[in-house]
Design a protein that fits this description.
With about 400 residues, the protein is of the alpha/beta class. The protein is about 40% helix and about 15% strand. The protein binds S-adenosyl-L-homocysteine and iron/sulfur cluster (SF4).
Length: about 400
């Protein structure tokens, strides 16, 4: 895929925009107005930026694209986990998953909504259990495509709730004379207040984030910046299958992003069976990269451990897992495997899952077990896309 001819406005930092606006002899406050429209109001057209002069909007649209994501499919009820399948401008499909407050997940008890974000179309790492890697890697997402997942999800959410408000205010407007307001005022007032839905990000959707390092970091800086989306670095968790050199590189960045390692095996033997990346960066190398991350951070690393029946759920894995977790001062997230169509792997029984957790806790490791009801929608990222791509191919 060739990149669009014009850079997207949402791939630029404030400093980059300032430099550009200075060339055009435009003042700094114009940049801030523009940023407001992009990240607070989440507009999708230049024409909506009504406080920017028309000539300026024309110049911007001549130089930059302003792309947004198209919703292709959505699954799930509004009070539970919801999956969004987005279509990109080249037709590729990616997923984001919106998870309502769950204090046991990655953030603090005050969480409202977590969004699980994709970073690539497909994945090159080919973990044997994962739907995202099944059809290989297509391309990296650009910074604006990462940022847009958050904006588009919020846009969708607030559009839904304003539809509800419209219904409500229709009733109110029937009696608008009583309130002495113009019909329509109630809706525009509601739309004017910038609101936030998402206050936690997990970079755990499709793709290997650290294999798209530069675009990821650029996107996260835009999402983190007070002039951008304004989400705290400590509220952003990057999950990696274990790219050791990039973990070391990330440790050197100024932001305090959180790190999660997809471990899934506590010995090289077990891990290499299901994660080919382990042959390139075996546990010794991965551990030492994590140690260098740990030394520079005051936050705990999380070790993700999917429980797959007969593969990594043997209690013999508990001791090496506990040793690793203690060495890294990490907590362990046990996740029952989500069935992927066409793959033979299964999750262990509830009893086997609980036994693994108990054995781990007996080793004095901080651990959680995600206890899920039904896997239909809670399924890991990548599966909705896979099914849709296959249906399209069959059609
Ligand atoms: N590539 C990165 C981030 C995306 S995968 C990584 O591997 O960490 C996000 C998480 O979902 C990883 O921990 C991955 O191992 C897990 N995962 C993939 N397929 C899964 C499945 N079928 N059931 C449960 N978790 C799965
Ligand atoms: Fe890629 Fe992560 Fe899936 Fe492995 S688990 S194939 S690294 S997305």
């Amino acid at each position: 895929m060739t990149a669009p001819v014009k850079p997207d406005i949402k791939s630029l930092t404030r400093d980059e925009l300032l430099a550009r606006f200075a060339e055009w002899s435009l003042p700094e406050w114009r940049v801030d107005q523009l940023l407001q429209w992009l990240y607070q109001r989440r507009v999708t057209t230049w024409d909506e930026m009504t406080n920017l002069p028309k000539a300026m909007r024309e110049r911007l649209s001549a130089e930059f694209s302003l792309s947004s994501l198209t919703l292709s499919l959505k699954q799930g009820a509004s009070d539970a986990t919801q999956k969004f399948l987005w279509r990109l401008i080249d037709g590729a499909l990616i997923e984001s998953v919106l998870i309502p407050a769950n204090p046991a997940l990655y953030g603090d008890a005050s969480d409202r909504h977590t969004l699980c974000v994709s970073t690539q179309v497909g994945c090159a790492y080919g973990c044997k259990f994962c739907a995202s890697g099944l059809e290989g890697w297509k391309r990296n997402l650009r910074p604006e495509e990462i940022v847009e997942q958050i904006l588009a999800t919020e846009r969708w959410h607030f559009e839904q709730s304003s539809k509800l408000k419209v219904q409500g205010s229709k009733l109110a407007e029937d009696g608008a004379a009583t309130l002495n307001v113009e019909p329509g005022t109630l809706n525009s007032l509601a739309a004017a207040a910038p609101e936030r839905l998402i206050n936690n990000l997990v970079i755990m959707g499709m793709g290997e984030p650290l294999a798209n390092y530069d675009n990821l970091l650029k996107a996260l800086r835009i999402l983190n910046a007070p002039w951008g989306f304004g989400i705290g670095a400590r509220k952003i968790t990057i999950s990696t299958s274990g790219l050791a050199p990039q973990i070391v590189q990330l440790a050197g960045e100024p932001e305090q992003f959180r790190l999660a390692i997809s471990l899934h095996g506590a010995t090289d033997e077990v891990r290499s069976q299901i994660m080919p990346v382990n042959r390139k960066y075996p546990l010794r190398e991965l551990t030492s990269a994590c140690e260098s991350y740990q030394r520079k951070r005051d936050r705990m690393i999380t070790l993700e451990y999917i429980l797959i029946a007969g593969v990594n759920d043997d209690l013999l894995q508990v001791r090496p897992l506990a040793t690793l977790a203690k060495k890294l001062n990490a907590k362990v997230n046990l996740i029952p495997y989500n069935k992927v169509e066409g793959l033979q792997w299964r999750r262990p029984t509830d009893t086997a899952q609980e036994a693994f957790l108990t054995a781990l806790e007996a080793q004095k490791v901080v651990a959680t077990l995600r206890r899920e009801k039904g896997h239909d929608i809670d399924a890991a990222c990548g599966q909705l896309r896979l099914r849709t791509e296959r249906e399209l191919a069959g059609a």
